[in-house]
Amino acid sequence: MGILAANIMAMGQPFTAYAFPEAFTVPHSEAEDWMWVWQLVLVDGKMRGLFTLLFGAGLYLFLEKAWAKGATTGLQAKRLLWLGLFGLVHFYFIWRGDILFFYAVSGLVALLFIGLSARKQLVLGILGYIAGGILYGALFGFMQNVADGPAADNVALESVQAEFVKAADADLADGRAESEIRQEGSYLDYVAHNFEAHAFDPLASLMMFAFETLPLMLIGMALYRMGFFSGGFSNRKMRLWGLIGLVAGGALTLWIALSAKAGGFTYYGALAAFMGWSHFPRIFMTLGIAALLVSFAPAAGGWLSERVSAAGRAAFTNYLGTSVVMLLVFGNWGLDLFGALGRSELYLVTIAAWLVMLAWSKPWLERFRYGPLEWLWRCLTYGRRFPLKR
Question: Which residues cross the membrane (predicted)?
Fold first, then answer.
Protein backbone atom coordinates (compact mmCIF):
# COMPACT_ATOMS: atom_id res chain seq x y z
CA MET A 1 0.00 0.00 0.00
CA GLY A 2 2.81 2.39 0.86
CA ILE A 3 4.79 1.54 -2.25
CA LEU A 4 1.77 2.40 -4.41
CA ALA A 5 1.65 5.88 -2.84
CA ALA A 6 5.11 6.45 -4.33
CA ASN A 7 4.70 4.51 -7.58
CA ILE A 8 1.41 6.13 -8.55
CA MET A 9 3.23 9.26 -9.73
CA ALA A 10 5.04 7.28 -12.43
CA MET A 11 1.99 5.18 -13.26
CA GLY A 12 -0.32 8.08 -14.11
CA GLN A 13 2.38 10.49 -15.33
CA PRO A 14 5.69 10.13 -17.25
CA PHE A 15 8.22 8.08 -15.34
CA THR A 16 10.46 11.09 -14.70
CA ALA A 17 7.62 12.64 -12.67
CA TYR A 18 8.38 10.08 -9.94
CA ALA A 19 11.03 12.47 -8.58
CA PHE A 20 10.81 15.58 -10.76
CA PRO A 21 7.60 17.66 -10.47
CA GLU A 22 8.30 19.61 -13.67
CA ALA A 23 7.85 16.39 -15.66
CA PHE A 24 4.11 16.37 -14.93
CA THR A 25 2.03 16.92 -18.07
CA VAL A 26 -0.41 19.09 -16.07
CA PRO A 27 0.48 22.12 -13.91
CA HIS A 28 2.05 21.28 -10.54
CA SER A 29 0.46 23.72 -8.09
CA GLU A 30 2.13 25.30 -5.07
CA ALA A 31 0.06 23.01 -2.83
CA GLU A 32 1.32 20.02 -4.81
CA ASP A 33 4.89 21.27 -4.46
CA TRP A 34 4.34 20.94 -0.72
CA MET A 35 2.88 17.47 -1.28
CA TRP A 36 6.16 16.57 -3.03
CA VAL A 37 8.00 17.71 0.10
CA TRP A 38 5.91 15.59 2.43
CA GLN A 39 6.01 12.60 0.11
CA LEU A 40 9.82 12.71 0.12
CA VAL A 41 9.75 12.90 3.92
CA LEU A 42 7.12 10.27 4.68
CA VAL A 43 6.90 7.90 1.71
CA ASP A 44 9.68 7.89 -0.88
CA GLY A 45 12.32 5.29 -0.07
CA LYS A 46 10.80 4.44 3.32
CA MET A 47 8.19 2.05 1.92
CA ARG A 48 10.77 0.46 -0.36
CA GLY A 49 13.09 0.21 2.64
CA LEU A 50 10.46 -1.57 4.73
CA PHE A 51 9.75 -3.93 1.85
CA THR A 52 13.46 -4.70 1.53
CA LEU A 53 13.94 -5.35 5.25
CA LEU A 54 11.00 -7.74 5.21
CA PHE A 55 12.23 -9.36 2.01
CA GLY A 56 15.54 -10.14 3.75
CA ALA A 57 13.70 -11.50 6.78
CA GLY A 58 11.50 -13.56 4.47
CA LEU A 59 14.53 -15.07 2.76
CA TYR A 60 15.75 -16.51 6.04
CA LEU A 61 12.28 -17.47 7.26
CA PHE A 62 11.69 -19.47 4.07
CA LEU A 63 15.06 -21.20 4.41
CA GLU A 64 14.42 -22.12 8.04
CA LYS A 65 11.27 -23.95 6.98
CA ALA A 66 13.01 -25.48 3.96
CA TRP A 67 15.95 -26.74 6.07
CA ALA A 68 13.53 -28.24 8.60
CA LYS A 69 12.05 -30.33 5.77
CA GLY A 70 15.46 -31.42 4.48
CA ALA A 71 15.61 -29.03 1.52
CA THR A 72 18.67 -27.00 0.58
CA THR A 73 19.42 -23.36 -0.21
CA GLY A 74 18.90 -24.31 -3.85
CA LEU A 75 15.15 -24.24 -3.28
CA GLN A 76 15.35 -20.57 -2.31
CA ALA A 77 17.52 -19.89 -5.37
CA LYS A 78 14.87 -21.50 -7.58
CA ARG A 79 12.20 -19.40 -5.90
CA LEU A 80 14.19 -16.23 -6.60
CA LEU A 81 14.77 -17.16 -10.23
CA TRP A 82 11.02 -17.46 -10.73
CA LEU A 83 10.57 -14.10 -9.00
CA GLY A 84 13.08 -12.56 -11.41
CA LEU A 85 11.07 -13.91 -14.35
CA PHE A 86 7.88 -12.43 -12.91
CA GLY A 87 9.77 -9.15 -12.59
CA LEU A 88 10.88 -9.09 -16.23
CA VAL A 89 7.34 -9.81 -17.42
CA HIS A 90 6.13 -7.03 -15.15
CA PHE A 91 8.75 -4.60 -16.47
CA TYR A 92 8.30 -5.12 -20.20
CA PHE A 93 4.58 -5.89 -20.43
CA ILE A 94 2.92 -4.08 -17.52
CA TRP A 95 4.93 -1.28 -15.88
CA ARG A 96 8.62 -0.49 -16.05
CA GLY A 97 8.90 0.59 -12.42
CA ASP A 98 9.35 -3.08 -11.47
CA ILE A 99 11.52 -3.92 -8.47
CA LEU A 100 11.04 -7.69 -8.42
CA PHE A 101 13.86 -8.39 -10.88
CA PHE A 102 16.59 -6.67 -8.93
CA TYR A 103 15.14 -7.98 -5.65
CA ALA A 104 15.52 -11.47 -7.09
CA VAL A 105 19.11 -10.82 -8.20
CA SER A 106 20.00 -9.11 -4.90
CA GLY A 107 18.41 -12.03 -3.04
CA LEU A 108 20.58 -14.50 -4.95
CA VAL A 109 23.66 -12.51 -3.92
CA ALA A 110 22.41 -12.37 -0.32
CA LEU A 111 22.32 -16.19 -0.30
CA LEU A 112 26.13 -16.10 -0.51
CA PHE A 113 26.13 -14.64 3.02
CA ILE A 114 23.43 -16.89 4.44
CA GLY A 115 25.91 -18.94 6.48
CA LEU A 116 27.33 -15.96 8.38
CA SER A 117 26.29 -15.21 11.93
CA ALA A 118 23.50 -12.70 12.41
CA ARG A 119 26.01 -10.22 13.84
CA LYS A 120 28.26 -10.48 10.79
CA GLN A 121 25.29 -10.11 8.45
CA LEU A 122 24.24 -6.98 10.34
CA VAL A 123 27.72 -5.45 10.25
CA LEU A 124 28.14 -6.28 6.56
CA GLY A 125 24.75 -4.77 5.78
CA ILE A 126 25.52 -1.57 7.68
CA LEU A 127 28.94 -1.19 6.03
CA GLY A 128 27.38 -1.80 2.61
CA TYR A 129 24.71 0.79 3.28
CA ILE A 130 27.31 3.36 4.39
CA ALA A 131 29.33 2.67 1.24
CA GLY A 132 26.17 3.20 -0.80
CA GLY A 133 25.46 6.51 0.91
CA ILE A 134 28.96 7.77 0.13
CA LEU A 135 28.72 6.58 -3.48
CA TYR A 136 25.23 8.00 -4.12
CA GLY A 137 26.03 11.27 -2.36
CA ALA A 138 29.22 11.78 -4.36
CA LEU A 139 27.62 10.81 -7.69
CA PHE A 140 24.38 12.75 -7.46
CA GLY A 141 25.99 15.64 -5.61
CA PHE A 142 28.51 16.01 -8.43
CA MET A 143 25.77 15.87 -11.04
CA GLN A 144 23.70 18.49 -9.23
CA ASN A 145 26.64 20.82 -8.63
CA VAL A 146 27.79 20.66 -12.25
CA ALA A 147 24.36 20.86 -13.92
CA ASP A 148 22.87 23.50 -11.61
CA GLY A 149 26.07 25.39 -10.87
CA PRO A 150 27.45 28.48 -12.59
CA ALA A 151 28.44 28.43 -16.25
CA ALA A 152 31.57 26.37 -16.87
CA ASP A 153 34.84 28.29 -17.02
CA ASN A 154 36.80 25.64 -18.95
CA VAL A 155 36.22 23.38 -21.93
CA ALA A 156 36.24 20.08 -19.98
CA LEU A 157 33.64 21.21 -17.44
CA GLU A 158 31.55 22.80 -20.18
CA SER A 159 31.49 19.46 -22.01
CA VAL A 160 30.39 17.59 -18.86
CA GLN A 161 27.74 20.20 -18.13
CA ALA A 162 26.40 19.89 -21.67
CA GLU A 163 26.23 16.10 -21.37
CA PHE A 164 24.21 16.34 -18.15
CA VAL A 165 21.79 18.79 -19.76
CA LYS A 166 21.51 16.48 -22.77
CA ALA A 167 20.78 13.47 -20.54
CA ALA A 168 18.04 15.35 -18.67
CA ASP A 169 16.49 16.52 -21.95
CA ALA A 170 16.57 12.95 -23.29
CA ASP A 171 14.81 11.67 -20.16
CA LEU A 172 12.10 14.34 -20.43
CA ALA A 173 11.73 13.63 -24.17
CA ASP A 174 11.24 9.94 -23.40
CA GLY A 175 8.49 10.93 -20.99
CA ARG A 176 6.76 12.91 -23.73
CA ALA A 177 7.07 9.94 -26.10
CA GLU A 178 5.60 7.63 -23.46
CA SER A 179 2.74 10.08 -22.88
CA GLU A 180 1.92 10.11 -26.59
CA ILE A 181 1.91 6.32 -26.73
CA ARG A 182 -0.23 5.94 -23.61
CA GLN A 183 -2.67 8.59 -24.86
CA GLU A 184 -2.77 7.90 -28.60
CA GLY A 185 -1.03 4.56 -29.28
CA SER A 186 -1.89 0.94 -28.66
CA TYR A 187 -0.87 -1.46 -25.93
CA LEU A 188 1.50 -3.14 -28.41
CA ASP A 189 3.11 0.24 -29.07
CA TYR A 190 3.61 0.60 -25.32
CA VAL A 191 5.29 -2.82 -25.05
CA ALA A 192 7.45 -2.11 -28.11
CA HIS A 193 8.60 1.18 -26.55
CA ASN A 194 9.62 -0.65 -23.37
CA PHE A 195 11.72 -3.10 -25.39
CA GLU A 196 13.21 -0.51 -27.74
CA ALA A 197 13.94 2.40 -25.40
CA HIS A 198 14.36 0.61 -22.07
CA ALA A 199 15.67 -2.85 -22.89
CA PHE A 200 18.56 -2.66 -20.41
CA ASP A 201 16.84 -0.63 -17.68
CA PRO A 202 16.45 -3.64 -15.34
CA LEU A 203 20.25 -4.01 -15.27
CA ALA A 204 20.71 -0.27 -14.82
CA SER A 205 18.26 -0.28 -11.89
CA LEU A 206 20.12 -3.22 -10.41
CA MET A 207 23.39 -1.29 -10.43
CA MET A 208 21.71 1.89 -9.20
CA PHE A 209 20.05 0.31 -6.17
CA ALA A 210 22.60 -2.40 -5.38
CA PHE A 211 24.13 -0.50 -2.45
CA GLU A 212 20.70 0.03 -0.93
CA THR A 213 18.84 -3.20 -1.66
CA LEU A 214 21.46 -5.82 -0.80
CA PRO A 215 22.60 -4.14 2.46
CA LEU A 216 19.00 -3.71 3.65
CA MET A 217 18.27 -7.36 2.86
CA LEU A 218 21.23 -8.42 5.00
CA ILE A 219 20.11 -6.09 7.79
CA GLY A 220 16.56 -7.47 7.60
CA MET A 221 17.88 -11.03 7.66
CA ALA A 222 20.04 -10.28 10.70
CA LEU A 223 17.26 -8.48 12.58
CA TYR A 224 14.90 -11.39 11.96
CA ARG A 225 17.43 -13.83 13.40
CA MET A 226 17.97 -11.54 16.40
CA GLY A 227 14.24 -11.55 17.18
CA PHE A 228 13.49 -7.98 16.07
CA PHE A 229 10.23 -9.00 14.37
CA SER A 230 9.08 -11.51 16.98
CA GLY A 231 9.29 -9.79 20.35
CA GLY A 232 12.97 -10.44 21.02
CA PHE A 233 13.57 -6.79 21.91
CA SER A 234 12.04 -4.74 24.72
CA ASN A 235 8.87 -3.00 23.56
CA ARG A 236 9.82 0.11 25.53
CA LYS A 237 13.22 0.34 23.83
CA MET A 238 11.71 -0.42 20.42
CA ARG A 239 9.26 2.46 20.80
CA LEU A 240 11.91 4.85 22.11
CA TRP A 241 14.48 4.13 19.41
CA GLY A 242 11.78 3.87 16.78
CA LEU A 243 10.53 7.33 17.65
CA ILE A 244 14.07 8.75 17.72
CA GLY A 245 14.84 7.25 14.29
CA LEU A 246 11.57 8.49 12.82
CA VAL A 247 11.90 12.04 14.16
CA ALA A 248 15.64 12.46 13.52
CA GLY A 249 15.52 10.94 10.04
CA GLY A 250 12.32 12.85 9.24
CA ALA A 251 13.82 16.18 10.30
CA LEU A 252 16.90 15.64 8.11
CA THR A 253 14.78 14.56 5.15
CA LEU A 254 12.52 17.59 5.60
CA TRP A 255 15.57 19.86 5.44
CA ILE A 256 16.69 18.10 2.22
CA ALA A 257 13.19 18.41 0.72
CA LEU A 258 12.88 22.10 1.62
CA SER A 259 16.31 22.77 0.10
CA ALA A 260 15.21 21.11 -3.15
CA LYS A 261 12.00 23.16 -3.17
CA ALA A 262 13.88 26.38 -2.43
CA GLY A 263 16.18 25.58 -5.38
CA GLY A 264 13.20 25.54 -7.72
CA PHE A 265 12.96 21.76 -8.26
CA THR A 266 15.67 21.42 -10.89
CA TYR A 267 16.00 18.04 -12.59
CA TYR A 268 19.27 17.14 -10.87
CA GLY A 269 18.32 18.84 -7.61
CA ALA A 270 15.22 16.65 -7.29
CA LEU A 271 17.19 13.55 -8.31
CA ALA A 272 19.95 14.29 -5.76
CA ALA A 273 17.39 14.81 -3.00
CA PHE A 274 15.63 11.58 -3.92
CA MET A 275 18.63 9.31 -4.53
CA GLY A 276 21.64 10.94 -2.91
CA TRP A 277 21.09 13.16 0.11
CA SER A 278 18.17 11.24 1.66
CA HIS A 279 20.02 7.90 1.71
CA PHE A 280 21.31 8.16 5.29
CA PRO A 281 18.26 9.73 6.98
CA ARG A 282 16.13 7.18 5.12
CA ILE A 283 17.54 4.22 7.02
CA PHE A 284 16.85 5.85 10.38
CA MET A 285 13.24 6.44 9.34
CA THR A 286 12.86 2.96 7.84
CA LEU A 287 14.16 1.22 10.96
CA GLY A 288 12.16 3.61 13.14
CA ILE A 289 8.91 2.84 11.33
CA ALA A 290 9.67 -0.89 11.45
CA ALA A 291 10.35 -0.75 15.21
CA LEU A 292 7.14 1.18 15.89
CA LEU A 293 5.07 -1.19 13.75
CA VAL A 294 6.55 -4.24 15.47
CA SER A 295 5.92 -2.82 18.94
CA PHE A 296 2.40 -1.47 18.34
CA ALA A 297 0.92 -3.81 15.73
CA PRO A 298 0.30 -6.89 17.95
CA ALA A 299 -1.92 -4.82 20.26
CA ALA A 300 -3.76 -3.04 17.45
CA GLY A 301 -6.44 -5.63 16.73
CA GLY A 302 -9.75 -4.70 15.15
CA TRP A 303 -11.18 -5.00 11.67
CA LEU A 304 -8.72 -2.62 10.02
CA SER A 305 -5.74 -4.48 11.44
CA GLU A 306 -7.12 -7.74 10.08
CA ARG A 307 -7.72 -6.21 6.66
CA VAL A 308 -4.22 -4.72 6.45
CA SER A 309 -2.69 -8.01 7.59
CA ALA A 310 -4.59 -9.90 4.90
CA ALA A 311 -3.46 -7.40 2.25
CA GLY A 312 0.11 -8.06 3.41
CA ARG A 313 -0.32 -11.82 3.17
CA ALA A 314 -1.36 -11.30 -0.46
CA ALA A 315 1.34 -8.70 -1.10
CA PHE A 316 2.67 -10.31 -4.30
CA THR A 317 -0.80 -10.39 -5.86
CA ASN A 318 -1.58 -6.88 -4.65
CA TYR A 319 1.71 -5.51 -6.01
CA LEU A 320 1.42 -6.98 -9.51
CA GLY A 321 -2.38 -6.74 -9.54
CA THR A 322 -2.22 -3.02 -8.86
CA SER A 323 0.13 -2.55 -11.81
CA VAL A 324 -2.31 -4.39 -14.10
CA VAL A 325 -5.23 -2.30 -12.86
CA MET A 326 -3.30 0.95 -13.33
CA LEU A 327 -2.26 -0.13 -16.82
CA LEU A 328 -5.97 -0.23 -17.66
CA VAL A 329 -6.88 2.88 -15.70
CA PHE A 330 -4.28 5.11 -17.34
CA GLY A 331 -3.79 3.68 -20.84
CA ASN A 332 -6.05 4.76 -23.71
CA TRP A 333 -6.90 1.06 -24.08
CA GLY A 334 -8.67 1.49 -20.72
CA LEU A 335 -9.94 4.64 -19.02
CA ASP A 336 -7.42 6.87 -20.86
CA LEU A 337 -6.37 8.90 -17.81
CA PHE A 338 -2.61 8.94 -18.40
CA GLY A 339 -1.20 12.43 -17.99
CA ALA A 340 -4.64 13.83 -17.16
CA LEU A 341 -4.43 13.80 -13.34
CA GLY A 342 -2.31 15.95 -11.06
CA ARG A 343 -0.55 14.84 -7.90
CA SER A 344 -3.52 15.44 -5.60
CA GLU A 345 -5.86 13.51 -7.91
CA LEU A 346 -3.38 10.62 -8.15
CA TYR A 347 -3.49 10.35 -4.36
CA LEU A 348 -7.25 9.82 -4.65
CA VAL A 349 -6.60 6.97 -7.11
CA THR A 350 -4.16 5.53 -4.55
CA ILE A 351 -6.78 5.61 -1.81
CA ALA A 352 -9.29 3.91 -4.10
CA ALA A 353 -6.73 1.17 -4.81
CA TRP A 354 -6.09 0.77 -1.07
CA LEU A 355 -9.81 0.23 -0.51
CA VAL A 356 -9.84 -2.46 -3.20
CA MET A 357 -6.84 -4.22 -1.59
CA LEU A 358 -8.47 -4.12 1.83
CA ALA A 359 -11.82 -5.26 0.42
CA TRP A 360 -10.74 -8.38 -1.48
CA SER A 361 -7.73 -9.76 0.45
CA LYS A 362 -9.43 -10.87 3.67
CA PRO A 363 -12.49 -12.61 2.11
CA TRP A 364 -10.20 -14.35 -0.38
CA LEU A 365 -7.85 -15.68 2.30
CA GLU A 366 -10.80 -16.91 4.36
CA ARG A 367 -11.66 -19.22 1.44
CA PHE A 368 -8.23 -19.92 -0.02
CA ARG A 369 -4.83 -20.78 1.45
CA TYR A 370 -2.83 -18.23 -0.56
CA GLY A 371 -3.28 -15.22 -2.79
CA PRO A 372 -3.52 -16.20 -6.49
CA LEU A 373 0.05 -15.23 -7.42
CA GLU A 374 1.44 -16.45 -4.08
CA TRP A 375 -0.07 -19.85 -4.92
CA LEU A 376 1.35 -19.82 -8.47
CA TRP A 377 4.81 -18.82 -7.19
CA ARG A 378 4.71 -21.60 -4.61
CA CYS A 379 3.71 -24.21 -7.20
CA LEU A 380 6.50 -23.12 -9.56
CA THR A 381 9.07 -23.13 -6.75
CA TYR A 382 8.28 -26.66 -5.61
CA GLY A 383 7.39 -28.00 -9.05
CA ARG A 384 4.02 -29.38 -8.00
CA ARG A 385 0.44 -28.26 -7.61
CA PHE A 386 -0.64 -27.28 -4.10
CA PRO A 387 -4.28 -27.24 -3.01
CA LEU A 388 -5.61 -23.69 -3.13
CA LYS A 389 -9.02 -23.98 -1.47
CA ARG A 390 -9.21 -24.29 2.30
Answer: 35-63, 99-116, 123-143, 203-228, 240-260, 280-304, 316-334, 346-365
**Cβ proximity of 311 and 356 under 8 Å:** no
Residue ranges of the chain with per-residue pLDDT less than 50: none
- pTM metric for this prediction: 0.94
In angstroms, rounded to a whole number, what is the distance separating the alpha carbons of residues 171 and 190?
17
Q: Which amino acid is at 209?
A: F
The alpha carbons of the chain give a radius of gyration, in whole angstroms, of 21
What residues does each domain of the chain span? 33-299
Q: What is the secondary structure of 125-193 as a DSSP string?
A: HHHHHHHHHHHHHHHHHHHHHHHHSSPPSSHHHHHHHHHHHHHHHHHHHHHHHHHHHHHHS-HHHHHHH
Name the E strands within 12-95: none
- Give per-residue pLDDT as tens, 315-362: 999 999 999 999 999 999 999 999 999 999 999 999 999 999 999 999
Task: Give every CB contact of residue 366 below 8 A, 6+ residues apart in sequence.
Answer: 390
Dihedral (CA of 191, 196, 197, 202) sign: positive
